[in-house]
Amino acid sequence: MPAPQSQPGVVDVLRINGVNAGATPDLLIEIPHGATRTADFDAVEQVLTSPLPKDLRDFFHVNTDAGAPELAVALAHRFVTLEPSKSVAILRCRIPRTFIDCNRRIDADPAEFKAGKVTPGLMPWVTTDEDRELLLARSRAYVRAVDDAVAEVMPRGGAMLLLHTYAPRSVGVEVDLDIVTSLRAAYAPDKEPTWPLRPEVDVIHKTLEGVSLAPAPVVATLKTALAAVNVSLADGESYPMHPSTLAHGHVTRWPGRVLCVEVRRDLLATPWTPFAQMRIGDAECARLAGPFAEAVRAWWPTP
To answer: What is the pLDDT averaged over residues 207-221?
Structure first.
């Protein structure tokens, strides 16, 4: 099976090798919400025909995983420095989840998303058949690229890191046609501090039944390494590993070889702001890249 390649507007594929140029990757880092630039949003918005909510770009910036691509690259370079015989592949989705979420089972019942408190796959403001087909085609292309990368890496003893970031506070708003108005009200200066503060880093690993799907040695190493830089690691406090997500399929198919993590964006952005493209700091990424690189090494313990 051929290795996945970058596709404009769909996926960026980056390979970072140690001493073995062209080696099959040992570690796959997937960033399904990697469309983090304003240009990513604009490129899709301008080709859609559906009547979109006014200023939907505000929701895009709040809801996309700013900082995840930069952290992934810093992590990969640190990992191959520590393990020169290893190599890393990074898959970054460039399709904004504002329109279609490439970490969702599109065929899932909408009630399943709501019950699981996860955003839907295809957003409610995408209403024309042409737009649906365009977005579904891009989503299918991205998922195929991920499947190809998984087939390249995982059967030969590789490992997979599903890397996400989230806004500092858990804001309770409905994903509907009034999403922008609701968000602006939620982020009003007198309202924002009242929302629950999320963990700095959280491992997403518990099923709806409370069963852990995480690789314990990797999590234990990550917790210790993060503590050394004064960052705390939570134990699945934010939300469960929901079966409506494609991540759930990865962790159940490859038990012990997949880790899903959320990082709070204010640890990476300088500064964090809800409604604009953020600057991600090199020093901030380097601070977390070290602990993450130490953690993923636990998949290949030194004899």
So the answer is: 92
- Cβ neighbours of residue 239 under 8 Å, at least 6 residues apart? 116, 117, 118, 204
Residue 4 falls within a domain, yes or no? no
pTM for the model = 0.95
Confidence of residue 111 (pLDDT cuts 50, 70, 90): low
Inside any domain, residue 120: yes
**3-class DSSP assignment, residue 116:** coil
Tokens coding 21: 């140029």
Q: Which two tokens stand for residue 279?
A: 């600057």
Instruction: Give me the phi and psi of 91, to 5 degrees please.
Output: -110, 120
Please provide the average confidence, as pLDDT, over all residues in the chain. 93
Count of structural domains, the chain: 1
Cβ pair 198, 264 in contact under 8 A = yes
In a domain, 151, yes or no: yes
Tell me the residue range of the domain where 264 lies: 11-297
At 108 the pLDDT is 58
What CATH number corresponds to the domain at position 242? 3.40.630.40
